[in-house]
């Protein structure tokens, strides 16, 4: 080998070791970056006649795609469970914890207790006032919980719109990255940074919708949802959704008053994109929220009907409202939806609305005050609350029970559903954590990278020494 050939080979070695050192530095600095794929320089010997050296073939990115796919699926499941748990936690906050005096159950108990107190001293105006106040607090508690449910459904509808927007943007980004990666592959250029970027975007999609990713020959990928919908092949699809500014108890997906999903303008089943945060938001808006509203309306209806019983208050004319009303009117059994939000106390007994508290004792239809010592009606009202009856609506079952029993069934239903989803969340979070750690352990090994750096340092020094020796030989020749 000639001196110039030796220098050429050594220079190629310097270039390779310099690039290798740069890759080691990048690997170590990104050791905790989940989307980062460990880089490794790909080398081969270079030989033309008597001249040799090393050739850099490119940069290889190492990533366990199986672990990445499992971790992405776990993230999707965790997002799904977290969304549902958050909803039921907020519902429990709205209805209150059993035993809390400010909960709906606590307000019901307070109303019962104030009726007992008023019945024992029907002549005591202050006790009648307390009973009316407690009845109002019960109504306000039901109204507030009903508003919260619809607010949460409205928030879920907005979250669906946000997820769809993010999904469409991410799919378009993947399409663009596919083109760049395919172009780099066609020209034999390495594109590890593009692959890292694509993985970040895939993780964004995977949190919203569980996906399957299929590699293609040119480095591009095809994306399918777990439900079988093609999200990206050569081009990205467009997911459609129409957001509502306000969602009311009368709006449902089944009734066609709320938007579903479309794929390139065609109706798409929600289950086709199920499993991630998107499906969970649909479940909150169209299933869990509707069920919670129905159960709350069942409680409101049972409360109204207990006090509309003709045998309780003889002062009411046929068709008149009882102590609790549907926005001031008698309840229409065909108009139950949303009753818990429309529920009001009869203005005849409410001083704030121009009524008189003595009508709680003498009857909501009474024109004049009756005997102040007669607590019969108050006792009958208490009996109406405590009597066992089958609810007219079936959303909380068909067992006989008192008003307190029905309220307990509602609290129990919400708590049980939350507990089940919390168990799902705990499992999903643990699985996500394990798979995240596994992905990181399959990534950059800093100890190994430091060993590689020592080898590169030695190789760099050796190549530099070859160049130095060749330079000394050339200097010797020029002095001859």
Commentary on this structure:
α2 (65-95) packs parallel to α6. Helices cover 58% and strands 9% of the residues. The protein is mainly alpha-helical and 480 residues long. It is elongated. A hairpin with an 8-residue loop joins β1 (38-45) and β2. The protein is built from 11 helices and 10 strands.
Compact summary:
With 480 residues, the chain is mainly alpha-helical.
Number of strands: 10
Number of alpha- plus pi-helical segments: 11
The parts where pLDDT drops under 50 for at least 5 residues are none
Radius of gyration: 36 Å
Q: By helix and strand content, what is the structural category?
A: mainly alpha
Proportion of strand residues: 5-15%
Overall pLDDT score: 90
Shape: elongated
* Helix percent band: 55-70%
What is the strand arrangement across the widest sheet? 3-4-5
* H and E string: HEEHHHHEEEEEEHEHEHHHH
Q: What's the story with the biggest beta sheet?
A: 3 strands, antiparallel
- Straight-line distance between termini: 21 Å
């Amino acid at each position: 080998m000639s001196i110039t050939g030796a220098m050429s080979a050594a220079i190629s070695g310097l270039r390779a070791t310099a690039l290798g050192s740069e890759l080691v530095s990048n690997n170590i600095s990104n050791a905790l970056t989940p989307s980062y794929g460990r880089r490794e320089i790909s080398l081969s010997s270079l030989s033309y006649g008597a001249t040799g050296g090393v050739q850099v073939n490119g940069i290889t990115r190492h990533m366990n795609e199986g672990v990445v796919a499992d971790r992405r699926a776990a993230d999707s499941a965790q997002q799904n469970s977290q969304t549902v748990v958050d909803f039921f936690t907020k519902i429990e906050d709205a209805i209150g914890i059993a035993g809390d005096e400010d909960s709906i159950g606590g307000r019901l108990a307070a109303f019962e207790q104030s009726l007992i107190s008023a019945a024992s001293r029907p002549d005591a105006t202050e006790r009648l006032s307390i009973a009316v106040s407690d009845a109002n607090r019960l109504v306000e508690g039901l109204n507030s919980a009903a508003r919260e449910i619809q607010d949460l459904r409205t928030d879920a509808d907005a979250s669906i719109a946000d997820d769809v927007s993010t999904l469409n943007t991410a799919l378009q980004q993947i399409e663009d990255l596919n083109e760049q990666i395919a172009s780099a592959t066609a020209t034999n250029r390495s594109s590890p940074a593009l692959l890292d970027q694509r993985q970040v975007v895939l993780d964004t999609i995977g949190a919203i919708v569980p996906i399957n990713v299929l590699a293609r020959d040119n480095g591009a990928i095809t994306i399918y949802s777990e439900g079988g919908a093609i999200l990206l092949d050569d081009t990205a699809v467009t997911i459609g959704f129409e957001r509502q500014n306000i969602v009311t108890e009368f709006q449902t997906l089944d009734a066609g008053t709320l938007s579903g999903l479309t794929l390139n303008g065609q109706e798409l089943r929600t289950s086709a994109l199920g499993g991630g945060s998107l499906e969970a938001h649909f479940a909150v808006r169209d299933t869990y929220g509707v069920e919670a509203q129905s159960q709350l309306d069942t409680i409101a209806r049972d409360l109204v009907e207990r006090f509309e019983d003709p045998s309780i208050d003889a002062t009411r004319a046929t068709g008149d409202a009882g102590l609790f009303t549907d926005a001031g009117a008698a309840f229409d059994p065909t108009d139950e939806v949303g009753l818990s939000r429309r529920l009001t106390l009869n203005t005849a007994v409410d001083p704030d609305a121009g009524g008189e508290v003595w009508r709680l004792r003498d009857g909501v239809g009474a024109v004049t005050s009756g005997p102040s010592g007669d607590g019969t009606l108050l006792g009958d009202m208490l009996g109406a609350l405590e009597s066992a009856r089958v609810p007219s609506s079936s959303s909380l079952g068909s067992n006989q029970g008192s008003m307190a029993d029905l309220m307990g069934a509602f609290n129990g239903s919400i708590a049980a559903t939350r507990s089940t989803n919390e168990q799902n969340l705990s499992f999903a979070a643990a699985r996500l954590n394990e798979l995240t750690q596994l992905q990181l352990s399959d990534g950059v090994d800093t100890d190994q990278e430091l060993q590689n750096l020592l080898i590169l340092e030695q190789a760099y020094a050796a190549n530099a020494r070859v160049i130095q020796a060749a330079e000394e030989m050339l200097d010797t020749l020029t002095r001859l």
